[in-house]
Design goal:
By secondary structure, the chain is α/β, with parallel strands linked by helices. It has 2 domains: 5-221 and 397-444, Ribonuclease Z/Hydroxyacylglutathione hydrolase-like (Metallo-beta-lactamase, Chain A), CATH 3.60.15.10; 229-392, Rossmann fold (3-Layer(aba) Sandwich). It is 27% helix and 20% strand. The protein has 13 helices and 19 strands. It has helices spanning 39-44, 56-62, 100-103, 119-131, 194-206, 229-241, 256-268, 277-289, 319-322, 328-333, 350-353, 374-386, 401-411, and strands at 5-10, 19-24, 27-31, 93-94, 115-118, 141-144, 150-152, 155-161, 170-176, 179-183, 211-215, 247-251, 272-276, 304-307, 338-341, 360-364, 389-392, 416-419, 442-444. The strands form 3 sheets. It has a 7-stranded mixed β-sheet with strand order 6-5-4-3-2-1-19. β8 (155-161) and β9 form a beta hairpin. The model has no long low-confidence stretch (mean pLDDT 93).
């Protein structure tokens, strides 16, 4: 019987879009399946131009944005493409966490193929699907208890928790006939659950892995500020302590650790945190799955308000929050007592809120990758128009370059395969053998 192999169908010299196939004899699984942040996407698609819902695979294949493989896609997703529907050739898709670039293409997968994920990730996907236009399709869903092996023929997959900027994230130990493959997913070790990351890599090292497939988002040149979550808290504390005006913040809607940080900072400053209807729904849903994370829960936590934007129609999931929600006149009246979370897509609310010139605006998200980032230019046009003062406080969801080097050296894999990075060359010399993978190439395990 042939040696086990790994094959990379995405995440190669790009951020996001991991798609890793592991095969051992007749057994085949796919790990993660989401869109990449490839420049090719931005060349052909954008906010107002999306692949057609009637022929999504055909449109993605046209520009090489999906792998051309049989036995993976649903019959509906293949409509119009030159790939023909076949019987499933994968026995499962394993999802490391609930970010779009790792789970966003699940809706294209054949509904007969099971999807495996942690309990927390499953709950978050349910909440995201209910409160957004993102859909994940119909599948046999299997929620895996951490530490419990899942047997897929010759393959045994052990899910373990890691710390990332969304809870419920997992790394996988994949045991084959020729040794263990470690797949990290996305991770950090400077967040509030850093101990989970440390324990994962201790378990990985104990396996004496034949291969380590690791993300490397921040490998290579990285000039961004290195904040921990405690550092974000310290910066926000300092800013709120010296301000007597409405304070505004933008953060990733699914970064629940960040909302915990912002809430604690607001309360320490004698302020209340105001969140959007969508964030309120996600916080309530996530609290049931992650009760140990001290996140603000509308309707339960003191000092939390929900902001109601004027709309012609509210979705059913929004309606339970409407009776107690606050509006722009109320926020304007009580501004000095509030920290308002305002997503960039809701910046038109500033026209009604009219914060005082000099009011602090906290950008608690990644800094732009380039000086010509269009969204960043639009953001600063709005801030300049209203005279708001800009402050950057963000802790990355990814390990830094020095942290990546330390981790690879501590795990001591026979071979390391960097993915989810634009700089795989940065990993040279960190392991006995470093392979910068090529799309579609099968790499034997155990040689």
């Amino acid at each position: 019987m042939a040696h086990p192999t790994v094959r990379f169908l995405g995440g190669v010299r790009e951020i996001g879009g991991n798609k890793v196939v592991v095969e051992d004899g007749p057994d085949r699984i796919l790990i993660d399946f989401g869109p990449s942040f490839s420049p090719v996407w931005e060349q052909y698609w954008g906010q107002y131009l999306q692949p057609r819902s009637a022929s999504p695979v055909k449109d993605y294949l046209e520009f090489g944005l999906l792998p051309r493989v049989e036995g993976l896609y649903s019959e509906d997703a293949l409509a119009g493409s030159d790939l023909r529907p076949t019987e499933p050739e994968f026995q499962g898709v394993f999802v490391s966490h609930a970010h779009l670039d790792h789970a966003g293409h699940l809706k294209l997968v054949d509904p007969r193929i099971p999807v495996y994920l942690s309990e927390g990730t499953g709950s978050l996907l349910d909440a995201i699907e209910e409160s957004t236009f993102t859909k994940y399709g119909e599948h046999p869903w299997h929620r895996m208890p951490y530490g419990t092996p899942v047997q897929i023929g010759h393959l045994e997959v052990v899910p373990l928790p890691v710390d990332h900027s969304i809870p419920g994230a997992s790394g996988f130990l994949i045991r084959t006939r020729e040794g263990t493959i470690v797949y990290t997913g996305d991770y950090r070790q400077h967040g509030p659950r850093a101990d989970e990351t440390h324990r994962f890599f201790e378990a990985a090292a104990a396996e004496r892995p034949v291969a380590l497939i690791t993300e490397g988002t921040r490998a290579g040149p990285d000039t961004r500020k290195q904040f921990t979550e405690e550092g974000v808290r310290a910066g926000v504390d300092h800013l709120l302590a010296k301000s007597n005006q409405l304070a505004l913040v933008t953060s990733y809607p699914r970064d629940l650790d960040r909302f915990s940080t912002l809430y604690q900072a607001a309360r320490a400053a004698g302020r209340s945190l105001v969140v959007s209807l969508r964030t309120a729904y996600l916080l309530q849903a996530a609290h049931r799955s992650f009760p140990t994370i001290p996140m603000p829960v509308p309707g339960e936590s003191e000092g939390v308000h929900v902001y109601r934007r004027p709309k012609s129609r509210y979705f059913p999931w929004e309606r339970p929050f409407l009776d107690d929600a606050v509006d722009a006149p109320w926020v304007k009246q009580h501004g000095a007592e509030l920290l308002l979370s305002l997503e960039m897509s809701h910046f038109a609310e500033l026209i009604d809120l009219r914060p005082d010139p000099g009011s602090p605006y906290i950008h608690s998200m990644s800094e732009p990758f380039s000086e010509d980032d269009v969204d960043d230019q639009v953001l600063h046009h709005w801030l300049d128009h209203f005279g708001l003062s800009f402050h950057q406080y963000h802790a990355s969801g990814h390990a830094s370059g020095p942290e990546l080097e330390s981790i690879v050296k501590s795990v001591r894999p026979a071979t390391v395969y960097p993915v989810h990075t634009e700089h795989p060359e940065a990993f040279q010399g960190w392991a006995a053998r470093t392979v910068s993978p090529e799309l579609g190439t099968r790499y034997p395990i155990g040689h």
